[in-house]
Amino acid sequence: MKIQVEVKELKEGKYVIVDDEACVIKSISKSKPGKHGSAKARIDVIGLFDNQKRSIVGPVSDKIYVPVVERKNAQVLSIAGDVAQLMDMGDFSTFEMSIPDEYKDRIVEGEEVSYLTAMGKMKFDLR
């Protein structure tokens, strides 16, 4: 799911869709309107799921899509290799997610973990 907003309404730390990928806004710089054009904005972002740096430049009056990012909780039912089977605590559905290397020691069977979901993709959100 995604909604459409104007570029001038975006803030650092919020989410935006760039190249069909949900991204976190790291910095926004806006220029003043010139003699022959409108104000422009440069937005530097990092992919939420692929950690790639991207940037876009455009008028502040343009519309851009913002993903609906949800933070949910799940219980770890079992771990097989680097795949964890999880049960969502809201609707009790079960699903599997691969465990990144940096989280292998922090994800334990029976514990509750939080995860992010946006645009059909999921990732662990351990802080």
UniProtKB/TrEMBL annotation:
Single GO term (MF): translation elongation factor activity
Gene Ontology BP annotations: positive regulation of translational elongation; positive regulation of translational termination
Record key words, sorted: Cytoplasm, Hypusine, Initiation factor, Protein biosynthesis
Bilayer-crossing regions: none
Residue numbers of Hypusine PTMs: 35
Domain Translation initiation factor 5A C-terminal residues, every copy: 68-127
Pfam families: eIF-5a, IF5A-like_N
Localization terms from the record: Cytoplasm
GO CC terms, sorted: cytoplasm
Stored Gene3D superfamilies: 2.30.30.30, Nucleic acid-binding proteins
Record function comment: Functions by promoting the formation of the first peptide bond.
Family: Belongs to the eIF-5A family.
Protein name from the UniProt record: Translation initiation factor 5A
Organism this protein belongs to: Methanolobus vulcani
